[in-house]
Amino acid sequence: MTASTPLVADDQPSLSRSRLPTAGPGLWVGGAILLLTVLLAIFAPLLAPHSPYAQSLAERLIKPVFMGGTWDHPLGTDHLGRDVLSRLIYGSRMSLAVGFGTILISAVLGIGLGLAAGFRGGRTDAFVVFLLTVRLSLPIMLAAIALNGLLGNSLGLMMLILAFFLWDQFLVVSRALAMRLKNAEFVLAARAAGFSDFHIIVREVLPNMTGPLVIVATLEMAHAIMLESALSFLGLGIRPPAASWGLMIAEAKDFVYFEAWLVNIPGFAIFTLVAGITLFGEGLRTVFENAGGR
Amino acid sequence: MREPQGAPLPRLALEARAVSHSYPGHQAFKALTNVSIALREGETLAVVGESGSGKSTLSRILLGLSPLSEGRVLCFGKDIGSLSRRERAARMQPVFQDPYSSLNPRHTLAEIVAAPLLARGEARASALNRATGLLEEVGLGSAYARRRPSALSGGQRQRAAIARALIANPEILVCDEPTSALDVSVQAQILNLLQQQRRERKLSVLLITHNIGVVAHMADRVAVMRHGEIVETGSVRDVLLEPREDYTRLLISSVPDLHGGLHSERPWDAAP
């Protein structure tokens, strides 16, 4: 084909790529903490100095190295003589598995409902909003304890139960975005082009929601990790002898007045990971806001 | 209504028969009341009126993108309700007002332009190839094919939107204020591109606009809308030179006059 009009020099052609908006230090600090935890979890067998399950009553309650312990057990040993550092490293697997697994399930649930409500409107929207109201009226911890008590506990079940309570933010955000985007001209153009509603939702609308939804995912992941720790602390989460940070605190609670470090170390790990993920989410929010809300 | 006499009239490409539409709500707003217009094959029909007169609602109903409360819309004699989305897409395509929101920011220009071909199942590689060719035809080089809309100016984006509307060789183009979001210097280029493509492809064009100058430049016939109703229809020459309705006269007189400034009057605003 020949160019029937001269190659345009229209109004200021701006071919330069848009610059990456500046992010605060939170994004990098949070991202580093999250990345470090992921690496710990992946390479746990290589990094852990001991087996997380090996007990040695002769070596129980050895203090960490910074409190006069030995480098053989840098973070000391617990009441059964298990190496705390090794359990901490393996425990990161549990926290991340629960975090990622839970947000995956709750995102599918919440985004699916949010898109249906936002796009279809009317009765579908009213029904979904009713479900949301029911969910928001449930006290998460009490209901999770009840469900755990009824159904038993395993990693998979834990993720399902937590996901059952953590889809609301995904729903609220995706519903609001769907309502806005369904009348966007590029969506109307896709309909006029002949695409099906399913294609439009998956290819046109969802890619324009990723920014806000990733932020929700990070914040909900932190929430899920906190809840898993709390449930494990109450004896309703991961079963011993598996290593979980919440379980480590639960097992150490009898020693809290005499060997407080046994509680503080896993507590600090939970705090650091949750803070890191939250910082990362907030950093992403700043980036997307600077980029114009996308 | 005043129609030219003489030669037999071409068949109707797009027709609205007694279309009414209300937006739901506690106080339902009636956007269109008993609107009947007919776009003949090969002509450009302008629908003109001030903001809020129902022009855009009418264009979306004619495209089958909004439901209508009453009446019928016919595309080459067939009720658009009986046509599938793909059948409608093959016959008519839109060019929207705002090129900043009518192109998906996540897609490349080639993907955007190829959309009507991809939607009807054409192989991706050949669809993208044709899209690149058409981008050149509307004045954007093939280098633009892999760029995203954010790298383009308003006029360039509107060229891409026009390419998307043309790629599936539709018979009807529905242009909803295609230049009103653009700089004055770019408007003429886009109008000329539309005119040129209309002639080459023998398109029937429904042109929604509030700009009388655009009507004079582009259209064969014009329908004047006010408060959701058609108040006057006729050839551009008749309506612009000898308007029958006060409202039409007012629209014409609202065109900025470089010598005398704006001399608009709104007699109905002063009505008791």
Could you write a compact summary of the structure shown?
Chain B: Keywords: ATP-binding, Nucleotide-binding, Transport. The complex is a heterodimer of chains A (294) and B (272). Chain A is mostly helical.
Q: Could you tell me the mean pLDDT of chain B?
A: 85
CATH domain fold name of the domain at 93-290 in chain A: MetI-like fold
Which word captures the global form of chain B? Answer: globular
Helix content estimate of chain B: 25-40%
Radius of gyration of chain B: 19 Å
Which class best fits the helix and strand makeup of chain B?
alpha/beta
Poorly predicted runs of chain A are 1-19
- Strands of the biggest beta sheet of chain B: in what spatial order? 6-7-8-3-9-10
CATH class category label of chain B = Alpha Beta
Rg for CA atoms of chain A: 24 Å
- Note the main sheet of chain A: none
How do the SSEs of chain A run, as a string of H and E? HHHHHHHHHHHH
N- to C-terminal separation of chain A?
36 Å
Query: Structural class of the helix and strand makeup of chain A?
Result: mainly alpha
CATH class call of the domain at 93-290 in chain A: Mainly Alpha
Q: Roughly what percent helix of chain A?
A: 55-70%
Give a count of the beta strands of chain B, DSSP E runs of length 2 or more: 10
Architecture of chain B, CATH level 2?
3-Layer(aba) Sandwich
Return the string of H and E elements of chain B.
Answer: EEEHEEHEHHHEHEHEEHH
Q: Which architecture of the domain at 93-290 in chain A per CATH?
A: Orthogonal Bundle
- The average pLDDT score of chain A comes to 84
Indicate the topology:
The complex is a heterodimer of chains A (294) and B (272).
Chain A lengths: L24 H18 L1 H4 L36 H37 L1 H16 L2 H12 L3 H11 L2 H14 L3 H9 L3 H9 L4 H24 L11 H8 L8 H30 L4
Helix pairs in contact in A: 1-3, 1-12, 3-4, 3-6, 3-7, 3-10, 5-6, 7-10, 8-9, 10-11, 10-12, 11-12
Chain B lengths: L11 E12 L5 E12 L3 E5 L6 H8 L7 E6 L2 E2 L5 H7 E4 L13 H11 L4 H14 L16 H13 L5 E5 L7 H18 L2 E6 L2 H7 L2 E6 L2 E7 H6 L4 H8 L19
Parallel strand pairs in B: 3-8, 3-9, 6-7, 7-8
Antiparallel strand pairs in B: 1-2, 1-4, 4-5, 9-10
Helix pairs in contact in B: 3-4, 3-5, 4-5, 5-6
